[in-house]
Design a protein that fits this description.
about 180 residues; alpha/beta; about 40% helix
Length: about 180
């Protein structure tokens, strides 16, 4: 029993703390972030000032792109998804958010509402894509496993995710992104 407990603790130390800033703009029954919080796979934040100062904040409008080398920072300070309605996304991200804002490169959504649309990721997909790119693949799969369509995200984005994860710098990542999504970059 102690070995199992130790392994679970050790495994948790090997993946970043996940936070969700819940702005409660979506139907809670369909909200991927709310389900992550309910299942205790993410810690809820209810106010912008609760966002940890040095955490990596997923922001689709950030000029800085998330890279594999952000792994150490994610482990130390955590990873934050901002859960808001796509209708309010522009207004939400024009506010100054604490933490270091990072955007994901282009990925396709697998959620039923925005299936195969670039950049229209749910909070769950954004977190899983980030985790996968930084080398936390088991944690990404674990999060995605809570939805029937979750594994489809990895299937749809298998090649881009691998290319993004192996990019050593922003230039290499943007080159990879333009190979897979030439009209989106």
């Amino acid at each position: 029993m102690r070995t199992v407990e130790f392994n679970l603790r050790e495994q948790n130390l090997q993946s970043p703390r996940i936070y969700v800033l819940q702005l409660r703009q979506d139907d809670p029954k369909k909200c991927t972030a709310a389900k992550l919080v309910r299942l205790r796979l993410a810690s809820p934040l209810y106010r912008i000032r609760q966002v940890p100062q040095r955490s990596l904040v997923l922001n689709p409008f950030s000029p800085e792109v998330l890279l594999n080398r952000d792994k150490a920072e994610a482990l130390r300070y955590g990873l934050v998804a901002v859960d808001c309605s796509w209708e309010n996304v522009q207004a939400t991200f024009t506010n100054r958010l604490p933490g270091r804002s990072k955007r994901l490169p282009t990925l396709l959504a697998s959620n039923p509402v925005n299936y195969a649309k670039p950049h229209k990721l749910s909070s769950l997909e954004a977190l899983a894509g980030s985790l996968h790119m930084m080398g936390f693949r088991g944690e990404a799969r674990r999060l995605l496993s809570i939805f029937k369509w979750g594994e489809t995200f990895l299937t749809l984005n298998a090649e881009p995710l691998e290319a993004y994860a192996s990019a050593s710098d922003e230039k290499g990542l943007i080159e990879a992104e333009s190979q897979f999504f030439p009209t989106c970059t």
